[in-house]
């Protein structure tokens, strides 16, 4: 971006995280850009899915990209929604929790009639002087997120109230220049977003191919000419003639065991790591940044042995699994929303079972037992009845070796794709920041 033009002269903005701004720009607090005061949303529960009523927008409905999720649609009765109806180009700001600072620009041509919930704040701008689309771009900049971090730095629970949002300082050019900047970024970001979407589609296909490969290997084996037999399990179909059907409970050396009901407060590396559902990423690895530990006395009953498997038993992560390897993690125990499966390793290889827990057949089983549930939950009793197709121990080892080799190929391709997505997102964020704080002059630039 160093080749892009700058403005002729700059001045000190007086705001640390804005730095210098073009000499003809101003710094203004958000409260002076509004046509009405900031307004909190409705404190109403989200129960209806009636498409004829106003859409009820909650924090959980807003994607990281600032668009609305379709799979979480809820509505609110018009009488309750009336006071909180959104106008075109209103902006919603998240005020608490992990999503604090997230924003959403409401466009009536895409969503039409909508209202908003209590953990969101509505900002309605004076459009005669300020372009909401420019402001929404500012709310995606690194400068804005530096401010969010600074106002939350001492807080145990992240929260940005309307009073705090009122004091947000923005770098503001003339209305005409705001519109030029918004138009330039809209076109340029559309190109970047298309590249990101293309990479994300590729990553999804790679993930699907990996699951398909695993699913075939753990239910059909590697020999295409092997004689097959009916498994009598709908989700498994035909399996190799020499394989057996086994319930999970018959693979164990000890009964399934729930984890410790203890709060995660300590970060003492000298104590056993305390593994929770939130520590396990989508790849089945532990996140370093969420490390918590538990005092040895409390952890003792829940210490893990090498190659124990942890199973998530409730909520959005239900079914997720984690294979514990003592060599890479060290001493560890586990929390109450996880179930420990300790296998009879003389006959059953935990790595083979863990691969089965990544198969389509396994996830179809998870879906089938949760189909009627309002809150997803798989108890130890249910996990005990999970049916697996089991080859001999020697064939389990051969399949593991094959899948590990294939995994290396997938992981290289996936890592490359994720790195590119990260670089594109970083470029996107940097471009927005440089433009909306006046470090780059785009007035005479055209998007190819």
Report, as a whole number of angstroms, the end-to-end distance. Answer: 16 Å
What is the H level of CATH, i.e. the homologous superfamily of the largest domain? DNA methylase specificity domains
User: How many runs of DSSP E, i.e. beta strands?
Assistant: 20
User: Which structural class matches the secondary elements?
Assistant: alpha+beta
What fraction, in percent, of the residue positions are helical?
25-40%
Architecture overview:
By secondary structure, the protein is an alpha+beta fold. The chain folds into 2 domains: 10-195 and 422-436, DNA methylase specificity domains (Adenine-n6-DNA-methyltransferase TaqI, Chain A, domain 2), CATH 3.90.220.20; 222-390, DNA methylase specificity domains (Adenine-n6-DNA-methyltransferase TaqI, Chain A, domain 2). Helix content is 34%, strand content 15%. It has 12 helices and 20 strands. The strands form 8 sheets. The protein has a 4-stranded antiparallel β-sheet, with helices on one face. It has a 4-stranded antiparallel β-sheet with strand order 14-19-16-17, covered by helices on one side. The protein has a two-stranded antiparallel ribbon with strand order 1-2. Strand 11 (228-230) and strand 12 form a beta hairpin. Helix 6 (175-220) runs antiparallel to helix 12. 31% of the residues are buried.
